[in-house]
Amino acid sequence: MTSDSKALTHLRSFIAQHRRLLVLTGAGCSAASGIPTYRNDSGEWQRNQPIQHADFINLAASRRRYWARSLAGWPLIDLAQPNAAHWTLAAMEARDQISMLVTQNVDRLHQQAGHQNVVDLHGRLDQVICLACHQVIERDHMQQQLLLLNNITRPIALALAPDGDADVEEQLTRELKVPDCERCGGILKPNVVFFGGAVPKTTVENIFSQLDQADGLLVVGSSLTVFSGFRFCRHAHQKGLPIAAINQGKTRADDLFSVKLEADCVATLAALESTNH
Ligand SMILES: [Zn+2]
């Protein structure tokens, strides 16, 4: 037996032994759908740091920069399709093997694959929210407004970055006109949790309570570098709940896992599903 098939056997028995899993997914899950990840296998930043919450809230220049890059990056996120990881996890949920899926991704690909009980831990990129009146609008509508206001017919992304971000000409980041809320004139923000922003407390408490009722935690494609995801591993560990992880590269919680597959999560889940019939 090769080490790959041995690891797969360990994962399969973990899933068989723990019938109600809470699953936590990260960027590794969406990489095969063409959405780049923030960090390499060693957990280091691959690019410049992403926008910080406080900068977006306080600085008009930061918001211009964010929307210029998002204007170019959004169409590619919008077109992204689920891959074998999303399909397999949705199939596992349909077989009652997963009680809740918590994702750190903002691309909604789990939902596109038919997954029902999904918590978007860091929000969703397909929506925009007004910071003043809290009205939520479609990201597609914001795209149309941005294009109209700036008289742009064809934005050109130089390179795609994570979470609908993309490199664009510097001039665009300086000169972009950003629409305000059509209802109250307030500042519009993508409905996501930026770095330095907080996940709502009720969301975190709900996940903790679901975790307490689960038989195990399965981490898929996350280095768990960000505390908002890591805390669920710490909580599971403190409660004596077994944790399995599939991730290419090291994670912040490696010493908490009972099973760790150092492998591509999409290929691993595809192999798991194909041998399940
Ligand atoms: Zn408003």
UniProtKB/TrEMBL annotation:
Zn(2+) binds at residues 130, 133, 181, 184. SUPFAM superfamilies: DHS-like NAD/FAD-binding domain (SSF52467). It is an enzyme of class 2 (transferase). InterPro entries: DHS-like_NAD/FAD-binding_dom, NAD-dep_sirtuin_deacylases, Sirtuin, Sirtuin_cat_small_dom_sf, Ssirtuin_cat_dom. Its EC number is 2.3.1.286. Keywords: Metal-binding, NAD, Transferase, Zinc. Pfam families: SIR2. Residues 1-277 form the Deacetylase sirtuin-type domain. It comes from the Bacteria. PROSITE patterns: SIRTUIN. GO terms for molecular function: histone deacetylase activity, NAD-dependent; metal ion binding; NAD+ binding. The active site is at residue 122. This is protein acetyllysine N-acetyltransferase. It comes from SAR86 cluster bacterium.
